Amino acid sequence: MAKKVLITGGSRGIGAQCARVFAEAGWEVYINYNKSEEKAFALADQIGATAVKADVSDFTDCVKMLEITGGLDLLVCNAGISQQKLFTKTTPADWRNIFSVNVDGVFNCCRAATPYMVYNKRGSIITISSMWGQVGASCEVAYSASKAAVIGFTKALAKELGPSNIRVNCIAPGVIDTEMNSHLSKDDMAVLADETPLCRIGTADEVAKTALFLASDSASFITGQVIGVNGGMII
Ligand code: NAP
User: Fold this and answer.
1) In whole angstroms, what separates CA 46 from the centre of its chain?
2) If you take atom 19 of ligand 1, which residue's CA is the nearest one?
């Protein structure tokens, strides 16, 4: 029987590429979306997946989503938002908005999914943080703090769920070519590529294939780890 994965924020970018890669590898794929309904359904049609709407910042939505998917073999907590702003201009509402998706969203989905996994004594979770959660980014204090929280969450949950045979790992991407970086100019992207030891921007496919590896039996003794997919920008 095909293994079942739910990818949050699977409508676009890294999440959409994860959906393609897992579908190609024979997984039964559930694509979560919030606003990008058309994209989610088009992708689901294309790859034979199921699209499920839920705002990950809403716990009730996440519980309903898990009722639709049923027990999972893998949860990929990928949905996220970013904001570039001077800290002195960041409002409490900005802070809450970032944390509600990037941190509450991870809690809500994991909290809804783990009872099934613990009951079955099997499963795996992959969270998507960021290299800025590891080292901090100027003008992205809220985003960096939220992604650092995801790393702490991953490590603690890995310790708690290890005895239930559930692995929890984190991917910390560097600069990846998706809509999240569409506010950056070509020149900005060129500078970021220059600052990267591998001299280029990463692709969503490189993140997705790392997720596929972490979900596979090849990674069966890996848990609680933060895997950088950043071209060497953070070492
Ligand atoms: P993206 O292209 O902007 O896509 C973001 C995804 O998150 C969309 O599918 C969006 O779905 C979903 N999302 C946002 N808010 C949501 C909510 N409340 N509920 C459910 N889904 C929600 O971004 P990306 O580059 O693929 O980023 C994916 C993850 O990688 C994020 O966690 C991001 O922080 C992380 N990351 C990205 C980079 C990078 O350089 N791109 C680097 C490091 C880390 P809808 O459109 O359907 O709302």
Assistant:
1) 21
2) 55
* 163 CA from centroid of ligand 1 (Å): 31
Report the C-alpha gap between 59 and 61 in whole angstroms: 5
- What are the domain boundaries of the chain? 4-228
The atom of ligand 1 lying closest to the CA of 101 is 18
Looking at ligand 1, which residue's alpha carbon is closest to its atom 36?
A: 130
DSSP SS3 for 169: strand
Is 143 catalytic? The answer is yes
Distance of CA 121 to the CA centre of its chain: 23
Average pLDDT estimate for 28-53: 98
Tell me which residues have their CB closer than 6 angstroms to ligand 1: 8-9, 11-15, 32-36, 55-57, 78-82, 101, 128, 130, 173, 175-176, 178-181
Top-tier CATH class for 4-228: alpha beta
Give the pLDDT mean for 196-213.
Answer: 98
| Separation between Cα atoms, residue 71 and residue 22, nearest integer Å | 17
CA of 6 to the centre of ligand 1 (A): 15
CB-side exposure of 78: number of CA atoms within 13 Å? 29
75 beta partners: 6, 125
User: What is the torsion angle, in degrees rounded to the nearest 10, for the CA atoms of residue 97, residue 100, residue 106 and residue 110?
Assistant: -160
Atom of ligand 1 at shortest range from CA of 82:
34
Task: For residues 94 and 46, give the distance between their C-alpha atoms in angstroms, rounded to a whole number.
Answer: 36
Whose C-alpha lies nearest to ligand 1, atom 8? 9
pLDDT recorded at residue 54: 98
**For range 152-157, the mean pLDDT:** 99
Write the residue with the smallest CA distance to atom 12 of ligand 1.
9
